């Protein structure tokens, strides 16, 4: 009996010790192995860092406004010697010219904030094959673009693995542009895109190794939950069916709205993914309402900037 009693006490002691170690293990490893938050707008970077945005109420009052730029070329860290012998291979992005092609070339690109701050994105691999997207500056060193221009959901790869990534603000043809080019130091998106592949969250950002936005200026951003059908919008970017490195734009009206998407009859083409969808009077500033992502037969579509999405792009701007 004594032997059984000692054995029972030993088992109880071992069980208690096991429980203590289990609790300690959960305490030590819980945060490291915790699953990502369910919120599709949780921000994620190419290094795996997951962060949360600052609530809009904590932002500065002027957050929505753009910036005209200083025009001081050569003071922003951009590379003014590099050039890219490009092609017009349409390998990135949707296209749709709806009816008669209404696109117009922006030439020169130095005359307005919207033309200076719209960027061409080039991805060139070791064999010389290039891919292209568009985007827009939202701060000195921040480009906002489509999520699929920073992360390939189907392949599960970030854009820095696709090839040499360069950003060309206000480019106007294949020759070296006035505003040079910048390399990219980090890539950002949200779980709604990288985890779910949801077009409603097809948005991303690039942080640059320069502050070219101080020279070119940048557009603001604006959001509303209102029905925007009938509102005039502009879309500009770098389509791959036109002369390499040339900037084109068109305008028309919004034809439908949902909580996460805007559709419009503005003509676009391959390589314009990430283009700004903007209005020149909304909210009293030159403001972007959506990020162009998709083409269609009757309308083109972009990821709508909501208040929550604005908080994300503002947080990227402040990284």
Describe this structure in a few short sentences:
Among the domains are: 1-33; 43-92 and 119-219, Beta Barrel (Thrombin, subunit H), CATH 2.40.10.10.
Order of helices and strands: HEEEHEEEEEEEHEHEEEEEEEH
Helix content: 10-25%
C-alpha Rg (nearest Å): 24 Å
The structural class is alpha+beta
Can you tell me the overall shape?
A: globular
Q: How is the biggest beta sheet arranged?
A: 6 strands, antiparallel, barrel
Count of helical regions: 5
Number of strands: 18
**Beta-strand residue fraction:** 25-35%
Provide the CATH superfamily of the domain at 43-92 and 119-219. Trypsin-like serine proteases
Structure, described:
This protein has 319 residues and is an alpha+beta fold. Helix content is 18%, strand content 28%. Among the domains are: 1-33; 43-92 and 119-219, Thrombin, subunit H (Beta Barrel). It contains five helices and 18 strands. The strands form three sheets. It has a six-stranded antiparallel β-barrel. The chain has a six-stranded antiparallel β-barrel with strand order 13-14-15-18-17-16. The longest helix has 32 residues, at 2-33. It is globular and about 45 Å long. The termini are far apart.
């Amino acid at each position: 009996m004594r032997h059984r009693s000692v054995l029972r006490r030993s088992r109880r002691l071992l069980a208690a010790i096991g429980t203590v170690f289990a609790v300690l293990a959960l305490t030590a490893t819980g945060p490291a192995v915790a699953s990502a938050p369910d919120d599709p707008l949780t921000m994620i970077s190419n290094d795996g860092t997951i962060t949360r945005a600052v609530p809009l109420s904590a932002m500065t009052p002027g957050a929505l406004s753009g910036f005209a730029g200083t025009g001081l070329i050569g003071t922003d860290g951009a590379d003014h010697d590099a050039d890219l012998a490009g092609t017009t291979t349409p390998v990135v992005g949707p296209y749709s010219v709806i009816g008669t092609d209404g696109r117009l070339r922006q030439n020169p690109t130095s005359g307005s904030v919207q033309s200076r701050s719209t960027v061409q994105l080039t991805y060139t691999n070791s064999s010389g094959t290039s891919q292209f997207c568009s985007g827009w500056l939202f701060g000195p060193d921040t480009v906002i673009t489509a999520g699929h221009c920073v992360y390939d959901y189907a392949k599960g790869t970030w854009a820095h693995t696709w090839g040499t990534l360069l950003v060309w603000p206000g480019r106007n043809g294949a020759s070296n542009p006035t505003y040079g080019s910048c390399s990219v130091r980090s890539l950002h998106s949200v779980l709604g895109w990288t985890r779910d592949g949801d077009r409603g969250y097809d948005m991303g950002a690039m942080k640059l190794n320069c502050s070219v936005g101080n020279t070119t200026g940048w557009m603001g951003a604006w959001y509303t939950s209102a029905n925007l059908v009938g509102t005039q919008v502009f879309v500009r970017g770098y389509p791959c069916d036109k002369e390499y490195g040339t900037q084109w734009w068109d305008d028309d009206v919004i034809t439908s709205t949902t909580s996460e998407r805007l559709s419009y009859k503005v003509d676009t083409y391959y390589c314009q993914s990430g283009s700004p969808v903007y209005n020149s009077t909304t909210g009293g500033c030159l403001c972007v309402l959506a990020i162009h992502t998709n083409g269609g037969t009757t309308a083109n579509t972009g990821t709508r900037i909501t208040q929550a999405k604005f908080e994300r792009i503002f947080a990227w701007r402040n990284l």
